[in-house]
Amino acid sequence: MGTSTSTGQAVSPQSRGRELARLGKQLWQETASVKTVAAELMSRHPEVPSIQAYRYAAGLSQDQAALRYNEVTGYQTTLGGTTINAWETWARSRGAGSPPTFSSLLVLAEAYGRGPLGMAVEKISPSDLISEAYERLPPEDQLSLKSFSAKEKGSPNSNVGPAFHPIRQTDSPSQSIGPDFNLVAPTVDYGNPEICVFSLPNPHPGNLLDLDWSTFGFGIERLIRQIKNLGRRLEVDICFGVNEAGLVMATFLASAQFSRCPIGYLRCNKVRDSITLDSTSSYPEAGEAPTILICDFEVKHADVVGFIASEIRRRYPGAQLYFAVFGAMTKGSDLEVTSFDDLTGAQIMRAAEFSAVFIAATMSPPGIEPPLELR
């Protein structure tokens, strides 16, 4: 189905694609960088997956992209535009299209790195092309991409154009983190219950684990991936941040994922054994029964989440609440938990009746400290 313009006229997907490819070519002439243009296009059009944004950044139609692909392989392949379409459809929505193989991503990265004129030599990582859909690749291709990315880090950066690092990048943080693992978390009806989580092992047990900025950003990227892989597009009316660290998370998520939706602020004050919300808290206006994402830095034992959920529902009757947390504490010493109920805050999060829960990482007591000691 085509989209509508301000005049009410439907715009076909083909016309929209031609317009975005034209825009991509124009932006490339200004920046000389496919990566920079792709990031800009994804910022303007969050619904466009990475692999499609890179094609637009190279100023190519699907048929032209297929011809460029065959050119890179020395015409040993006879790829058609329908295959390019299948890859982009797969990246855009779960259960449709077909994923590109690791070898295809290598060829495609070189093809798009040549730019609109086919003469550039910009280095593009194949991981950049499927950043939001990485977890849906076959395990073999995920492993190949991880190995390739690790080797890339040891080579000089040959990218042309200005340095640019979009929020969708998949580079690992400088801080040591544990391996990824899948966890089944509460989710929407007919949604994808599996989220890909990483652990945060603490080399100094008994002390707070101080996070650096790259790890913090890596966690936010992980939350974005989980939201994208929910199984349906999540449209949020307000992103609420709990205290300063949660506010930073909400700001990034609102900008990168939710088309710069309004941002709310919940400042919690602990008074004896109870929690109150400070008068400096901010509550954006919203329509009837809004969809709200609450962002918190960590979940431990205290029922801060339940208190906040009740307050939000009181202020926004009929609201549908989602919850994104950076770090969730585990009950045992093993951070790679096999069940959501192995988290200390599992019962608290279930009782809050969130439509879905997103978790970036697991942690051990006493917890983690955000960069610059954000509170």
Description:
This protein is an alpha/beta fold and 375 residues long. It has two domains: 3-152, no CATH class; 180-373, Rossmann fold (3-Layer(aba) Sandwich), CATH 3.40.50. It has helices at residues 13-31, 34-44, 50-57, 62-72, 81-92, 102-113, 126-129, 139-152, 213-228, 243-256, 304-315, 346-351; strands at 3-4, 10-11, 180-184, 194-199, 209-210, 238-242, 263-266, 268-271, 274-277, 291-299, 320-329, 357-363, 368-369. The chain has a seven-stranded mixed β-sheet with strand order 3-4-12-11-10-6-7. Strands 1-2 form a two-stranded antiparallel sheet. The longest helix is centred in the N-terminal third of the chain and has 19 residues, at 13-31. It is globular and about 70 Å long. The chain starts with a strand and ends in a 6-residue tail after the last strand. Residues 1-8 and 155-171 have low confidence and may be disordered.
**CATH fold label of the largest domain:** Rossmann fold
CATH architecture of the largest domain: 3-Layer(aba) Sandwich
Strand order in the sheet with the most strands: 3-4-12-11-10-6-7
Order of helices and strands: EEHHHHHHHHEEEHEHEEEEHEHEE
* CA gyration radius, whole angstroms: 22 Å
Number of strands: 13
Number of helices: 12
Q: Which spans have pLDDT < 50 for at least 5 consecutive residues? A: 1-8, 155-171
Helix and strand composition category: alpha/beta
What form results from the Cα inertia axes? globular
**Total domains, how many?**
2
The main sheet comes to:
7 strands, mixed
**In which range does the helix fraction lie?**
25-40%
Beginning-to-end CA distance, first to last residue: 46 Å
Mean pLDDT: 86
> How much strand content do the residues show?
15-25%
Query: What CATH first level of the largest domain would be assigned?
Result: Alpha Beta
